[in-house]
Specification:
Largest sheet: 9 strands, mixed
Distance between the termini: 82 Å
Structural class: alpha/beta
Strand order of the largest sheet: 14-13-12-11-7-10-9-8-15
Radius of gyration: 26 Å
Order of helices and strands: HEHEHEHEHEHEHEHHHHEEEEEEEHHE
Mean pLDDT: 93
Shape: globular
Number of strands: 15
């Protein structure tokens, strides 16, 4: 028979053991929380793959922050690499001639691809099996076949595969979308996207970039690819991923002496049940522009640039104008967004501007547009 003294001793032992267990669990919980917090505050290690797309200056010249850290730059053209590293006061220790040489010494968390569009597939083929996330410069791929291979690899290896467009970070576009969602202009009837400039040669694009922009294999087309993707991406986003019924396109090469192998002028028409999307992409405009016109059943919105927007809600009201501040972090910047997605701080909504589902549809539409321009017929989508 247990005495009360024995029972008290046993109870004391249980109490002590229980306290130890609680202490250990609290310690582990705190340690885990600290580790998670440390992981979230640690910059995402990014390798820059390729330098021939001049949008690369966006990341190379970006002010130092604690969200990302450039740990390597891969570029076989040593002259180009040396020039850009010197321009941005970066260490030459970051430079590698090849991806294989880089991977022998550096394991990044993610990579950004700033080479030609044809090589986007190769970048995903190499890095996805390592679980390394990828962001490519617009558009996602040169063809739907390439895009499908990239998507399958991203899904198989559970990586994020994002696409960066300059226009994704325009505050004017996000304000317009909010106004549409709130019903301020009624049902969407027509969206017209204007994207273009005088032409890459005319504006003085460096030769390393110009060579592949003029190559239909490496760029997937001319102006229809280079600038057509912007409007398709935005319309897909504003329509929440609704696929158009049909695609019709016309392309021209107005300056064959400069662009003999690709188009320099393109117009794409997207047919929806109750709306049209019109994308005007040009290497012939006298003044560079990236703007968006949105017409509803009641009112209209003009996104004049990244920050300026004008709108008129109906015929009885006056047109109003707004100059908007930059979007809040991390939505103001592709690389802040990329880091936030990788860390799990940001979950992209369906058909987000940078998201894979949006950009798969963008490539499907662009491929239909190129087919339409080539055959002179309307192309219906499945």
């Amino acid at each position: 028979m247990r005495t009360s003294k024995t029972v008290n001793t046993i109870n004391s032992q249980y109490i002590i053991a229980g306290r130890k267990y609680i202490f250990i669990m609290l310690f582990m919980f705190c340690a885990l929380g600290f580790a998670q917090q440390e992981a979230k505050s640690t910059p995402v290690k990014i390798a820059v793959i390729g330098l021939t797309h001049t949008h690369v200056h966006w990341i190379l010249g970006r002010p130092k922050t604690n969200d990302i850290e450039i740990v390597a730059i891969v570029e076989p053209n040593r002259d180009l690499a040396a020039r850009y590293v010197a321009q941005h006061n970066l260490s030459t220790d970051l430079l590698f001639d090849s991806i294989d040489a880089m991977l022998e010494k550096v394991t990044p968390d993610a990579v950004t691809a700033f080479g030609n569009i044809f090589d986007h597939l190769k970048v995903v083929q190499i890095f996805a099996p390592f679980g390394i996330h990828v962001m490519v410069e617009k558009p996602l791929a040169i063809s739907l076949d390439h895009a499908m291979d990239m998507k399958n690899l991203a899904t198989k290896h559970n990586i994020h595969l994002l696409t960066n467009y300059e226009t994704s970070w325009y505050a004017s576009h996000h304000k317009a979308r909010t106004m549409i969602e709130e019903g301020n202009i009624g049902e969407l009837r027509k969206i017209v996207a204007h994207d273009g400039h005088k032409g890459p040669e005319e504006i003085g694009v460096n030769n390393e970039f110009l060579v592949w922009l003029k190559d239909p294999k490496l760029n997937g087309g001319g102006a229809i690819t280079d600038f057509g993707c912007y409007g398709v991406n935005l319309i897909t986003w504003l329509k929440h991923g609704e696929k158009p019924v049909s695609v019709t396109a016309i392309t021209q090469t107005i300056k064959p002496d400069k662009y003999p192998n690709v188009d320099d002028e393109a117009t794409i028409i997207l047919e929806f049940p109750k709306m049209q999307g019109i994308i005007q992409a040009s290497w012939n405009w006298p003044i560079a522009r990236k703007d968006l016109e949105i017409y509803g059943s009641e009112g209209q919105i003009y996104c004049n640039n990244s920050s300026d927007i004008t709108y008129q809600l109906d015929e009885e009201t006056d047109e109003e104008a707004l100059t908007l501040p930059d979007l809040a972090v991390p939505l103001n910047d592709p690389f802040a967004t990329f880091a936030a997605v990788i860390k799990g701080d940001l979950i992209l909504e369906p058909f987000d501007l940078t998201g894979l589902d949006n950009n798969m549809l963008v490539i499907e539409i662009l491929e239909a547009a190129k087919k339409s321009a080539k055959t002179g017929t309307k192309v219906y989508l499945d």
